[in-house]
Amino acid sequence: MLEKIIIKGARQHNLKNIDIEIQKNKFVVITGVSGSGKSSLAFDTIYSEGQRRYVESLSAYARMFIGQMTKPDVDSIEGLAPAISIEQKTTNRNPRSTVGTITEVYDYMRLLFAHVGVAHCPVCGKPVEKQSVEEIVTGAIERFREGDKIMVLSPVIKEKKGAQKNLFSNLLKKGYVRVRINGEILYLEEDIDLDKNKRYTIEVVVDRLVLKKGDHDFESRFTQSVENAMGLSGGRVTLHVETKNEKNGKIMSRDYTYSENYACPDHEDVSIPDLSPRLFSFNAPYGACPECKGIGKRLEIDENKLFNDEDLSIAEGGIYIPGALSRKGWSWEIFCAFARAHHIDLHKPVKDLTDQERDLIFNGSGRSFRFDYDGKEFSFHGMREYEGAVKNLERRYYESFSEAQKEEIENKYMVERVCKVCNGRRLTKEVLGVTVGGKNIMEICDLSIKYALDFFLNLRLTEKQEQIAKEILKEIRERLRFMMNVGLEYLTLGRETKSLSGGEAQRIRLATQIGSGLTGVLYVLDEPSIGLHQRDNNKLLASLERLRNLGNTLIVVEHDEETMRTADEIIDIGPGAGDQGGDIVAHGTPAEIMASGSVTGKYLSRELKINIPDRRRPWKESLKLLGAKGNNLKNIDVEIPLGVLVAVTGVSGSGKSTIINQTLFPALFNKLNRGKLYPLEYKGIEGLEYLEKVIDIDQSPIGRTPRSNPATYTKLFDDIRDLFAKTKDAKLHGFDKGRFSFNVRGGRCEACQGAGIIKIEMNFLPDVYVECEVCKGRRYNKETLDVYYKGKNISDVLDMSVGEAYEFFRSIPALEKRLKVLVDVGLDYIKLGQPATTLSGGEAQRIKLATELSKSTRGKTIYILDEPTTGLHFEDIRKLLEVLNRLVDMGNSVVVIEHNLDVIKTADYIIDIGPEGGDGGGTVVAAGTPEEIMRDKASYTGEYLRKVLPAEDSGNAPEKSAPVKSKSAGKKVAAKKTEAARKSVKKAVPQKKIS
Q1: Which region, left, alpha or beta, applies to residue 623 given φ > 0 means left and ψ of -120 to 50 means alpha?
Q2: What is the C-alpha separation between 825 and 887, in angstroms, rounded?
Q3: Less packed terminus of the chain by CB within 10 Å, N or C?
């Protein structure tokens, strides 16, 4: 068996016909600048070929369902093991997918609750249990004493009105003699006269016995009596037991109620079905909340989104009225008649409408009014009702068969809100009444993984329950431990997977793979350190090494310095990006890479480094977010300096995104950009007068279809088409700007509709994309391609890299400016016409950043970025920092959520959130310059900054910086915290508020 993976002639994407040998059972890191070809080698060549060979081993019938993978452009690969890819893009966007479901912990929890759960009445909370006839009889004989008198009663009526004549007649026919009505024994032969307006509880006296232990005849009769009682009442029986007190000789009596169903003795209308695993699944109809169908949230029309402009009147378009955009026609006339009937003035500003008037407009009145309509096609004279704008949109959304109409209503007018029936708990109240260890299944899902593991480790069960649950608990505990080991202890089991970052989703899959215990497998990972604080990196690296030590090969695409230093081998690809990349620059141990002279080696050996700025920028104005309470935030006040580069740091799950992305950005967007977002709870925000707008530059795609590309997103293509429309050839043929668009008829190739490729569907082979035979992949028709600018037609320009286009259009100021910014952010290797679907999150984010930089600005803009270093090499980070600092130098403010120490050490100001993740976070641990954070003993970030910053360097101190203030004990409190106190999640961390 080969001990190496031998690759020969790899030419996938930009790879330059490379040959390489990779040792098996090693931890191998592939690194290099962005766009150099790392993913092309790791995923598109090695993993793709491993997966393709596996699929080809299956039958044609199986391949029809699984799909096929195309063969990568490589001469040969030998020694390939079964391959598993752990990427960032595999997060399930389905709202039904949670951390618990994808790790299978929730499946085992359902099994646990079905077998050892204790059911409770959802009304009164009393425990209810079902028992068979044998269990009831055996239990009663063991529980009561010899000689006790037992009356077996069948509860047939409970607290109901009626004379019940028919019931008494039927019981008498069946041979029963006595009944107990509201505690009083009466004979059925007597004329029982009940008041039909009063409530009665009626129990049939089935038998009366004296307990005889060890007597077979007694047990047989007792069993028969209990069976008869249950048959009459639908599974319930009451034993009225009289016993003599041994001390005073008094007779004491008491009722004992039993059921062979899960039924509460006090609430007969409550029915709890048999406990089975499917009952606890929110993805099945048996136990899922009927209102939200187990999602926990519902899409509802948001009334705020119906307001167009509150300064305008309804007649002027201040409120959106469905079907009445033109303010004429059937829908508008009905609304006008409704308004007249309810005395609503359509000509006063919307902001002056009363709450009652708004409610009528949105929800209608349910009252008919006179309506007369004379249209061109028909007339109507009679009574009508107006259902309301909100109800109209909801009805159209749920009744429409048009996906386009549904999508429009959802995007424009709807918002996701917590289900009012289950309060976001996904399951019915009957299912939530089942507990294990005093908690229902959703209460356990609300625990962080750390506390969930504590709960299951300390769970106390009866001997019988322990025997049933032993294997189930073992699986649950192991899976939770694996997630702890990869630094995910702060996540809750109920967290939706669509809300996870790429790094978190990848580490969950990594934890699952560690748990599987496979050996001889090739794992290919894509930057697993993303979103991970340096403190937690050791846990991740230990997990990766454990996977390798099991006998697996790890190929990790990574830029993290600590990961590279831990690796057995490093493959450095480059030297540049795009066409300048695709070669093996260096290959060997970390020490050999450092000695190789490659860009990566120089950064690892400290020959190259990202310099600390000579001075920290001073600041005067600031933005203050007050009383933030969202998610795990502990009612904190945060001060964000303006006009500087601010880094928000902290361990994973500490609350960084909650503060910035979910509270600060929506609040600023609503107030500065007049948006309609929903920030998490906060008391107030100060300092808005210093800002004009807020821009969030995230990693979402710049487009959802291959037709969207960097040229169209950055508006470069508009100027390029203008340029072509002004050429002599274009004017000669009468071509305008639209002729050079590949999205509309006219200049595009109609055979492929401007796509350049045609999709051919195969039956049980993969879909094949072939070059359009008419335009040869050039997107345009012959006449359009005959128009040239400096010897290039429009298709040639789209095929240029950004770097090539920069040189080509250097003489055109408008194009030169935009292209220069794309080059500055390190995207000179991407093509102008590269489909948006092929861009990584980091590339999409930098395109957005370049677009903002190319706009003229007056300053006073605050930019928010979430981990912009994702997917960036040391050299790319250096370029990114130059761009961010340029934004700040233009008078703007930049707030970056970041874990990368190179970014953190160059920031002007740091806000460190923590100290831990989940419940242990949510406070401001420290705030100040990097030098001040470095000296703070309570900060984990400060601990790692001490490794990259000089111990004392007055040259880096700020010229003028507002001091960090505390409303209580002041800054000295944080410095005096002990190491033990810092590491204790359960202890409250003194909260530092900035004012």
Answers
A1: beta
A2: 12
A3: N
